[in-house]
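seq:
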Amino acid sequence: MKSNPSIRRLVCQSCGLALTRDELDRARDDIRDRFILEDPVEAEKKKKQDYLNWLLKRKEEREAEE
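struct:
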């Protein structure tokens, strides 16, 4: 991220996201807390459940087309 003093924001050079320092700190804290507090076992269960939901949705869409 690069500082842009004219708009008083930090701007990402790859995606163009512009945040104030406070917004950047809050976003970083939220992401860090999410990963620290997440139980690895629960994360794996959620990943498997998301995949199953995706798979069943695709199957329903294929059956609806026929």
